[in-house]
Amino acid sequence: MYFSKKILSISIASLTLSACMTPTGPVDVTRFNKEGALLINSSGTYQGNFAIDTADQSLSLSPYNAAVSREMQRLGFDSGSGNTNYVISIAVDRYESERPKNSNVSVGGGASTGSFGSGVGLGLGLNLSGRKKRTHTELSVRITERISGDSIWEGRAIQSAKTGSPAAQEGIAAAKLANALFQGFPGTSGETITVP
Questions:
Q1: What residues have CB less than 8 Å from 50, skipping those under 6 apart?
Q2: 1 Cβ partners below 8 Å, 6+ apart?
Q3: What is the pLDDT of residues 74-117, one digit of tens each?
Q4: Do 34 and 153 meet the contact criterion of CB atoms below 8 Å apart?
Q5: Can you spell out the DSSP letters for 146-172?
């Protein structure tokens, strides 16, 4: 009995580790911020309470809400439902695209001349072996001051992954996008960076 419990524990741990190690590809991040608008305490970490605006949201945004909330708390903000300093608005856009597996078109030509005649040849090669589907996920986050209603920080993170791969799953994509979006928070306003 003890042996089977130990094996089960090891199996669960290895599954968790493999989920953490799933390659997710690069994320393009763009951010805008109003300098000096966020509260910072004497130790240099952010302070204040935030609440995620869930009005008119579908349940499909739950993993993104949780991922953004974790990142905000990691930065020092507190999650609260009472008198909050900041309201967080979250939007997600997911879509698929197709592109040829190998979109190269090769054209070859040759010419020859000689005492027995001349000839010109032209060859055209097309690869029609199929298409790859990719899932694109875009996470947009806006931080607004609750009292004034002013937008003080906005960010957008975009990732592309092979459709059906672990990286295209919403839970994994949500964690990766939120982590990339809040790296080096608040970021240089207007700058686009790529997070591996």
A1: 72, 77, 78, 79, 80, 84, 85, 86, 87, 88, 143
A2: none
A3: 999 999 767 899 999 999 999 999 865 554 544 444 444 443 34
A4: yes
A5: TTT--EEEEEEEEEEEETTSGGGSHHH
Cis omega before residue 186 (within 30°)? Answer: yes
Phi, psi of 17 (to 5 degrees): -65, -40
Helix (H, G, I), strand (E, B) or coil at 41: coil
Q: What is d(CA 112, CA 190) in angstroms, rounded to the nearest whole number?
A: 57
Angle at which helices 62-75 and 170-181 pack, to 10 degrees?
A: 30
- Global pTM reads 0.72
What does the alpha-carbon distance between residue 65 and residue 98 come to, in Å, rounded to a whole number? 29
Write the Ramachandran bin of 7: left for phi over 0, alpha for psi from -120 to 50, otherwise beta: alpha
Cα 157 to Cα 28, 60, 133: the distances in Å are 6, 18, 20
3-class secondary-structure state, position 46 = strand
Average pLDDT, stretch 109-138? 57
Reported as half-sphere exposure (CB side, CA atoms, 13 A), residue 20 has a value of 6
DSSP-assigned beta bridge partners for residue 97? 134
Question: What does the angle CA 173 – CA 33 – CA 58 come to, to the nearest 5 degrees?
Answer: 40
Rg of the chain's alpha carbons, rounded to an integer? 25
State how far the Cα of 165 lies from the Cα of 46, in Å rounded to an integer: 36
